Fold this protein.
Amino acid sequence: MSDKRNTVKVKCVASEGAVLPVYKTSGAAGADVCALLKEDIVIHHGEYTLVPTGLYFEIPQGYEIQVRPRSGLAFKNGVTVLNTPGTIDSDYRGELKVLLVNLGKEDFTVKNGDRIAQIILAPVTQADFVQAELLSQTERGEGGFGSTGVNS
């Protein structure tokens, strides 16, 4: 096992069929999470819904878990995580529910046990926000969306 692993406690409602997050390959950055459903959920084109997982986390202080889409689900079906990346704060103890949106052309059915998202443990740095009257100048300045060129 790598030195780079951190321990995250997970309460898993296994009696109802919840599954611990799993890294599918040794080089995977994200661990897959699965839906925990009593009955299928149909997400119609253009609609979104919260999908329960039966997972509850105790994330170490100074970390977050990011909830991200699964690329295959997005590519094959147009289904993605709406608020990506979603953040689970270290002090949250409720169930992980994944906000899926169907941007595909067809209705999409989520079944119990389907891999619906991936999660990544990431360090968090909190800032001290200090009010200032002036900010330093940069080459870009106040240039916003597209100001550095579309094709460069």
Summary: The chain is about 5% helix and 35% strand. The first strand starts at residue 9 and ends at 12. Helices lie at 71-77. The chain has a mean pLDDT of 93.
